[in-house]
Design a protein that fits this description.
170 residues, 1 helix, 5-stranded antiparallel beta sheet, single chain, 4-stranded antiparallel beta sheet, mainly beta
């Protein structure tokens, strides 16, 4: 038993760290995509496993101080299709995590960057420490500004457009 413990632990740790830099996204329509980083985390390569088509996203938000980026798969827009996010800790003191979210478009079979709508003024100027509430169908982004903490609550309207539901500071 002791002889198996170390190799099993090694495989477990390796699989966790590996999966954070490359992920598989299997959609409800059974399409599968492999997402991986290239060019020091500044480019994403997304390969459609069925068609072999490759989508390349350049200029991904990456740490300027060399902090490693990771990938997270989730349904960020609550449409039943899986999306993903690239994230890394901030380049200052590392107190929050910066997210760049990519939403799956089932019509084009591609992933599009989720951007802030221009007609809202969130307290956080990017998605930070993102939390998902699937019951309420909201995304929460939290950040610090000086001596204050800020929280932006995002939701989707009936047209599936991202809107700022509320913002608070404390």
């Amino acid at each position: 038993m002791k002889k198996l413990f170390l190799p099993i632990c090694f495989l477990f740790v390796f699989s966790i760290s590996y999966s954070q830099n490359e992920v598989s996204v299997v959609q409800k329509d059974k399409s599968e995509f492999k997402v991986s980083f290239e060019d020091d985390f500044e480019t994403l390569k997304i390969k459609n496993a069925k068609t072999g088509q490759i989508q390349v996203i350049k200029n991904v938000e990456a740490s300027i101080t060399g902090k490693q980026s990771r990938l997270e798969v989730n349904d960020f827009n609550f449409d039943g299709f899986l999306d993903f996010a690239s994230f890394h800790t901030d380049d200052g003191m590392g107190v929050y995590t910066i997210y760049q979210i990519f939403i799956f478009n089932p019509k084009t079979k591609q992933f599009d960057s989720l951007n802030f709508p221009s007609n809202f003024s969130p307290k956080c100027d990017m998605f930070c420490d993102v939390k998902i509430d699937k019951t309420k169908k909201i995304l929460t982004s939290s950040c610090r500004g000086g001596a204050r903490n800020h929280t932006d609550v995002w939701k989707y309207d009936k047209n599936k457009k991202l809107i700022l539901s509320k913002t608070q500071s404390y």
